[in-house]
Amino acid sequence: MTLVAIPLFPRVTALDAVGPYEVLQRVPSVEVVFIGHRRGEVRTENGMLGLCCDARFDEVTSPDVVLFPGGIGTRRLIHDDTIRAWLQAVHPTTTFTTSVCTGALLLAGAGLLDGLTATTHWRASGLLNELGARYVPDRVVEHLSQRIITAAGVSSGIDMALRLVELLVDRQAAQAAQLLIEYDPQPPFDSGSLAKADRATVDRATEYLDARQ
């Protein structure tokens, strides 16, 4: 079995974790465990949804894959000693260490992205650069020789998880997982990146983000 560890923390973005989980758990050879500072429930960024940690960081010492989600809560965890130490301890033996959205800030805070191109949510690009990475506005950024993959905001985690299945198993397995979740995006609008969104849309998105800080 391939063990995938997905850390959870207060004010995590639900889809950052659950989107990749829905892809990965479809594959019989993959086991997913949700971990955190302590066992039990954490609340997502708006407090409306609870997710459950089934193990502590110190109980999962050799995962095959780390998938660090993002969320508003990452800002308080960039210099968290437990997370930094855990990432530095497990990364040398992972098959892949990955992030979604602002989860990249925690990889960078642990020194795993020093000098590497990486992606994150567009709102956190400057902070990612300050932490030693080089932000690029791509949906998924791979450094396979370093076993690092980062995904941009929220929904891109599904794309990254499908790519992970291809790397861990094969292309057919990834396509089967895509079919199982009927992932065939046909959004009614074309404003899903800064390059496509007009100024009014960016302003409204920024207003909504600021309201949740």
UniProtKB/TrEMBL annotation:
Source domain of life: Bacteria
Ranges for domain DJ-1/PfpI: 4-166
Leader peptide range in chain numbering: none
InterPro entries reported in the protein's UniProt record: Class_I_gatase-like (IPR029062), DJ-1/PfpI (IPR002818), INH-QAR (IPR052158)
A GO biological process held by the record: regulation of DNA-templated transcription
SUPFAM superfamilies: Class I glutamine amidotransferase-like (SSF52317)
Protein name (record): DJ-1/PfpI family protein
Protein's organism: Mycobacterium parascrofulaceum ATCC BAA-614
